[in-house]
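Re: zinc ion structure - here you go.
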Amino acid sequence: MSDPCIISVAITGSVPKKGDNPAVPVTVPEQVESTHEAFEAGAALVHVHVRNDDGSTSSDPEKFAAFKEGVNRHCPGMIVQFSTGGRSGKGAERGGMLHHKPDMASLSTGSVNFASIIYENSPELIDDLAGRMMEHDIKPEIEVFDLAMLYNAAALVKAGKLKAPLHVQFVMGIPGAQPALEHILDFELGELKRILPDATWVAAGIGRHQLEVNRWALSRGGHCRTGLEDNIKFDRDRLAASNAELVARVADLCGEYGRHAASPAEARAILGLPQAAQAAA
Ligand code: ZN
């Protein structure tokens, strides 16, 4: 049996971009439909930001709740991860939907510059979001945009503010944050093993780095993230047709590395999440 790879799909970013791909789902029904296609293509986890119907950024907890309900209904067992990042509201508002108890939520453990903004995650905000995740029994996905965030995550575990084992994502290739370089991933994986030996991990490459970072993760036993939030193109010459197309590309690649796309049940076991009632055998 080959080694399962959890394919995460980040279906919709928090901010509309100029020249955005029209395949990016915006309304909740569009998001559920796009997630369902990605699920059929091999994704076991969905990462979501919500938008207003005009495409602008939203932090409406009810939209998150409606999305979760739709995915639970149409994609049995799929892991739902709410984003507390990007520009999904300001400050503590970014955790205003956590009482809807997704399986997971993203948690950035530090601040960093992006191309034109400060992505601000103060110690106070991190503590607040971590506390709400503990309270609602939500597994965090630690978003590492720069090296210090890895050590901050380990410090939160030590302080009893987060529960081990953590699931850590290395996000590479955002202008202003850590670059997409293979030796940097290797360095960080070495440190992960040293300071959080029981952690699982995933890597995400932004823009044109998406596919190469997928390959680096597959070859090192990690998990993969793809989707239109991170990259709107299939290749240099054309826009991706859908989230499902990007997921299918990773699912196809798995075989080259002795891997297969994890089923929702496998993904839940790997991440220590309870099996979903609908997915239970
Ligand atoms: Zn996101």
